[in-house]
Specification:
Number of helices: 36
Strand content: 5-15%
Shape: globular
Length: 844
C-alpha cells in the first residue's frame, strides 16, 4: 500500500481546520466528536481494520515493490516478525485486534495533551499515554495478541504525530527550532576537528580543533584572474563545483563551512550564509543508492539522530531556501553512477531555489562544464603556494608545541621547523611533494619523527609514514599495548592491505564492520603473528585503535583516514599478488589512477615494463577516450618508475607524443595534472595558433614545478591577451625572482593586469619598474602598497581581496596617475576615494 494512503487514513481521525498559531488540545481536533465532526465513533473500527489489513497484506507479500511504511517498519522493530505474522493471519484475533485498536483510537478524544506536547513526547511515550487513557483496550486479548496490539499502537502513533506536525505550522516551527539547535551542536561535534598526521608521536592527541589547525585554502579559475582565498571565492555564489586533487583539503573546507555556519561564527566574506542549515553529504555514503530525497538526507549519511527530525523538516528547510548543501566527493561515486548523480544536481537546485550548493570532486572524475548548464561556477583548489606551505609548516609546529612543556623539546622543535622550511625551499624534490595539506602534514610529521631528516620520493615517503604510524608511534611513547595485542609492523601492513584491496575490488571507499572482520578472519590464519594474538574481532579493534589509519565514520562502518593511504595499500597488495592484468583492465577508470601510479613506484623493473606496455596496448572494443586515458596514464607513471628499460620509456614517449596537443581547456588541465613529465612532450609553441598557445599555457602553468618556466619562456612574447593573462596569473606557483626575470619582465603590458599575491612579488615588480595595471590578490597593507607600487606608473588598481574593516581609501592619493579602481562586490562601502578615480565593482 502507498504510504500516502496510510497517512490519509490517519488524517481522517482529525478535523481539517483548526488553530495553527498556538498549541491546541488533541481532544478538540478529533473528527468523531465536537461541533465539526466528520466521523462517528462507528467509523473507528473501519479505520482500525483498514490499517491492520494493510499491515497484514504487506507482511504477507515479501516481494512487493511498494515502499515499506513507517507503520510496518515500526512493527518489525517492536515485535518478532513470525509472532506478528501469525497474529495478523488469524481471522478471530484480527477481529479482536481491530476492536482493541479502535478503542485506542477512541482514547484520542479524552487524552489530556496538546499537539505540541504530544509531538515532543515522540511515538513511544505518546503510545504509553494513549495506553493509560484506554486501559481496557486489550483486556480481551491473550498475551501474544496484546503485544501485537502494543506494536500497532506505537506504529499508528508515529503517523498521528506526523499528521499533527504537518497540519500546524506552529507545531512544525517549534519542533524545527528545537531540532535545529540540537542538529547544529551535533554538526560542530562531528566536524570541529582535524587529524594532523604524526603530531601525536609523543604526548599529543590524534585530532586538533578545526580553528587551530585550519589553513585557509586558495582557489583559482582559468579566466586569467588572480587566485583568491576559498572563503572569498565562494562568497556571493550559490552554486559551486570545486575541484581538488587527493589531499588538497576539499573535505577540510567542507568541514570548515559546516562548522562555521552551525556556530554562526562566519568570516566576513561568508556573512551571507548566516542562518542557513548545513547538510554535509559525503557521496560515499549513498554512492550506489542514488542521491537521497531531502527528508532522507540525514538517514543516508547515517546521522545518529535522524529519527528525531520533525516530519518534513528538511523539505521545509529547502523549500524556504535556507539550506547549505555540501556534496563532498563526486569521485567517490562509481563512474557509471555519476550521470545519475549529475541529474540529481540538476533537478534539486531547480526544485528548491535559493539554497547554496558546494559540490567537490577530484579533477579527473568530472569533465569541464560538468554542471555549467545548471549555473555552477567551476573553481579549483590551488596547490599550496610558497606562502601556503610556509604557513602550514608554521601552523603544524605551533599545534605541536601546545602540549610540550620541556624547554629543550621546544627548542628542538623550533629547530626542526626552520630546517624543514629551508629544505622545502631549497630541495626541488621536497618542493614538488609539498603541494597540499596532506603531503605537508606528512613531511612535518616525518621530519620531526626522523629528527630532521626526510625520505625522498613518493614510495619512500609513504613507507616512512606507515613505519611512523604503525610501529614507531607507540614505541616512541614507550607504551605497552593496552589491548594485549602486540603486532609487528609488517603483519599490520599485510592486514591493512587486505582491507584496502577489498575496497578496491568492490569499488568502495568504506566497508561494513562485519565485512572487515570477515575479511580479516579469512587471512589471519596465513599470518602467524596475528593468529597468535587474538580473534578477528580483537585484531580489527586493535587495527582501528592503534594504527592511526582506520576510523569508524559511523557505527558499523570503517574506512581509511584518507583515501591516499587506501590507494597506497591497495597498490602494495596488487603488486604482491602480481595482479597487473587486474590493474590494466581497470586503467580507464579515473579512481584507479593513484593505485596504478603507486603500483609503478612499488613494482620491479620487469613488472613496470609489463604494466606500462599493457597501458599502451590496443584493446578490443575500447572507446577512444579510454585508450587516450591509458596512454596518458602511462606517461604520468614514468616519473615514479625507479628503474625501467630505456626501450619501454622510449615507447611510452612515442605513443603519447601526439596526445599532448590539447584541443580543449579540459584536456589542457588534464595534461597538467600528469606532472612534469609532460613538459618533455609538449610541442614547440612557436608555430601554433593563439588558441592552441593558450591551451599549452594552461597545461604548462598547471605544473607547479620550476622546470615549467623553461617552456613558458617560449610563450612570453605572444601578443594574445589570453596567453599573457595566463602567464601573469601563474607567478605565485614558481620561484618569485626567477619567474619575474624570465616571464613577467617580458610580458606585453597592454590591457594586462599584473597580479601580486604577496610582499615578495610586490618588491620584485617594483624592481622591474612597476606596471600601469596591477591586481592585488593578497592582503597587503596600505603602507606596503604605497612603498611597493611605482606611483608614477600606476593608472589602474584592482584590490581583489576582502578589505575587511580597512575601507578608508584616502591613502590612494599617493598615486597621482590613478584613474580606475576595481573592487569586489564585498568592498562597496569604501570611503575616501580620491576625486577623479573611477570605481568599478567587479561583477556589477
Amino acid at each position: 500500500m502507498d504510504p500516502a494512503a496510510i497517512a490519509t487514513l490517519v488524517q481522517e481521525l482529525f478535523v481539517a481546520d483548526g488553530p495553527v498559531d498556538r498549541p491546541v488540545r488533541i481532544a478538540s481536533l478529533v473528527a468523531f466528536q465536537g461541533d465539526h465532526r466528520t466521523l462517528t465513533e462507528r467509523d473507528l473500527p473501519r479505520i482500525a481494520s483498514a490499517l491492520i489489513e494493510d499491515v497484514a497484506r504487506e507482511f504477507d507479500d515479501d516481494t512487493t515493490d511498494q515502499p515499506r511504511t513507517e507503520l510496518t517498519d515500526a512493527l518489525a522493530r517492536t515485535q518478532p516478525r513470525t509472532e506478528l505474522t501469525d497474529a495478523l493471519a488469524r481471522t478471530q484475533p484480527r477481529t479482536e485486534l481491530t476492536d482493541a485498536l479502535a478503542r485506542t483510537l477512541h482514547a484520542l478524544g479524552t487524552v489530556d495533551l496538546d499537539d505540541l506536547r504530544a509531538v515532543r513526547l515522540g511515538p513511544e511515550a505518546f503510545a504509553r499515554h494513549l495506553a493509560t487513557a484506554a486501559p481496557d483496550a486489550d483486556a480481551e486479548l491473550d498475551p501474544a495478541d496484546a503485544r501485537t496490539h502494543a506494536s500497532l499502537r506505537e506504529a499508528v502513533c508515529a503517523h498521528i504525530l506526523r499528521v499533527l506536525t504537518i497540519r500546524s505550522p506552529f507545531v512544525a516551527a517549534a519542533e524545527d527550532a528545537a531540532f535545529e539547535e540540537r542538529y547544529a551542536q551535533d554538526i560542530v561535534a562531528a566536524h570541529d576537528h582535524l587529524t594532523i598526521y604524526g603530531i601525536d608521536l609523543t604526548h599529543s592527541p590524534d585530532s586538533w580543533p578545526l580553528d587551530a589547525a585550519y589553513l585557509s585554502l586558495e582557489t583559482e579559475t582559468d579566466a586569467g584572474g588572480p587566485s583568491a582565498p576559498a572563503e572569498q571565492a565562494l562568497a556571493g555564489r550559490d552554486r559551486v563545483l570545486l575541484w581538488g586533487v587527493a589531499g588538497s583539503g576539499k573535505t577540510t573546507l567542507v568541514q570548515r563551512l559546516a562548522v562555521s555556519v552551525a556556530r554562526g561564527d562566519l568570516p566576513a566574506p561568508l556573512e551571507g550564509l548566516r542562518g542557513r542549515i548545513p547538510f554535509v553529504l559525503p557521496v560515499r555514503r549513498f554512492r550506489r543508492d542514488g542521491f537521497p530525497e531531502p527528508d532522507a538526507f540525514l538517514s543516508a549519511i547515517r546521522y545518529p539522530h535522524s529519527d528525531a527530525q520533525p516530519p518534513g523538516w528538511a523539505e521545509r528547510v529547502l523549500s524556504h531556501g535556507r539550506g547549505l548543501l555540501l556534496v563532498d566527493g563526486v569521485d567517490e561515486a562509481p563512474e557509471d553512477e555519476r550521470e545519475r548523480l549529475r541529474e540529481a544536481l540538476r533537478e534539486l537546485p531547480t526544485r528548491y531555489p535559493g539554497n547554496v550548493w558546494l559540490v567537490t570532486s577530484r579533477p579527473s572524475a568530472v569533465r569541464e562544464n560538468w554542471l555549467a548548464a545548471e549555473r555552477f561556477t567551476e573553481l579549483k583548489l590551488s596547490p599550496l603556494s610558497r606562502e601556503g606551505v610556509t604557513a602550514f609548516i608554521r601552523r603544524w609546529h605551533a599545534a605541536a608545541r601546545q602540549d610540550i612543556s620541556d624547554p629543550a623539546d621546544l627548542d628542538r622543535l623550533s629547530g626542526y621547523e626552520e630546517t624543514l622550511l629551508d629544505a622545502v625551499r631549497i630541495t626541488r624534490e621536497l618542493g614538488r611533494l609539498a603541494t597540499n595539506p596532506l603531503m605537508c602534514g606528512l613531511l612535518c610529521a616525518l621530519h620531526r619523527d626522523r629528527r630532521g631528516y626526510l625520505p625522498r620520493g613518493r614510495k619512500a615517503l609513504y613507507d616512512a609514514a606507515l613505519s611512523m604510524l604503525l610501529e614507531r608511534r607507540d614505541r616512541e611513547r614507550a607504551m605497552l599495548p593496552p589491548d594485549g595485542i602486540d603486532l609487528p609492523q609488517e603483519p599490520k601492513i599485510q592486514l591493512l592491505q587486505k582491507l584496502a584491496h577489498w575496497m578496491l575490488v568492490n569499488g568502495r571507499s568504506e566497508m561494513d564492520r562485519a565485512a572487515a572482520i570477515e575479511t580479516l578472519a579469512r587471512y589471519i590464519p596465513a599470518i602467524p603473528h596475528a593468529e597468535r594474538q587474538g580473534a578477528p574481532e580483537e585484531i580489527y579493534r586493535h587495527l582501528l585503535n592503534r594504527t592511526g589509519l582506520l576510523r569508524e565514520p559511523t557505527p558499523g562502518s570503517v574506512d581509511f583516514v584518507h583515501r591516499t593511504f587506501q590507494d597506497y595499500l591497495s597498490a602494495r597488495a596488487v603488486v604482491e599478488r602480481h595482479d597487473f592484468d587486474f590493474l590494466i583492465d581497470h586503467a580507464h577508470l579515473d579512481d584507479w589512477e593513484e593505485v596504478i601510479r603507486m603500483s609503478v613506484a612499488l613494482a620491479r623493473p620487469d613488472e613496470c615494463a609489463y604494466l606500462l606496455e599493457g597501458l599502451l596496448a590496443a584493446r578490443k572494443d575500447a572507446r577512444p577516450v579510454h585508450a587516450r586515458h591509458r596512454k596518458l596514464l602511462a606517461a604520468a607513471c614514468l616519473e615514479h618508475a625507479t628503474e625501467l628499460d630505456p626501450e619501454v620509456r622510449s615507447r611510452v614517449h612515442r605513443y603519447t607524443r601526439d596526445l599532448v596537443r590539447p584541443t580543449s581547456l579540459e584536456g589542457a588541465r588534464a595534461l597538467g595534472w600528469i606532472g612534469p613529465i609532460v613538459l618533455e612532450m609538449l610541442p614547440d609553441p612557436s608555430g601554433v595558433s593563439d588558441e592552441e598557445a593558450h591551451r599549452l599555457a594552461v597545461t604548462a602553468t598547471s605544473i607547479a614545478d620550476d622546470r615549467a618556466i623553461d617552456y613558458l619562456v617560449r610563450l612570453r612574447d605572444r601578443a594574445s591577451w589570453a596567453v599573457r593573462a595566463r602567464l601573469a596569473a601563474a607567478w605565485r606557483r614558481y620561484d618569485t625572482d626567477r619567474y619575474a626575470e624570465e616571464i613577467i619582465a617580458h610580458l606585453d603590458e597592454r590591457e594586462l593586469d599584473f597580479p601580486v599575491s604577496d610582499l615578495e612579488e610586490l618588491r620584485a615588480l617594483r624592481r622591474l619598474g612597476g606596471r600601469p595595471c596591477v591586481q592585488i590578490a593578497g592582503a597587503l597593507t596600505p603602507q606596503q602598497l604605497i612603498e611597493g607600487l611605482v606611483a608614477e606608473r600606476l593608472t589602474e588598481l584592482w584590490l581583489a581581496y576582502d578589505l575587511g574593516a580597512d575601507l578608508d581609501l584616502s591613502w590612494l592619493t599617493a598615486f597621482p596617475r590613478l584613474t580606475i579602481l576595481r573592487l569586489s562586490q564585498r568592498n562597496t562601502e569604501v570611503t575616501g576615494v580620491p576625486e577623479g578615480v573611477q570605481v568599478i565593482v567587479a561583477g556589477a
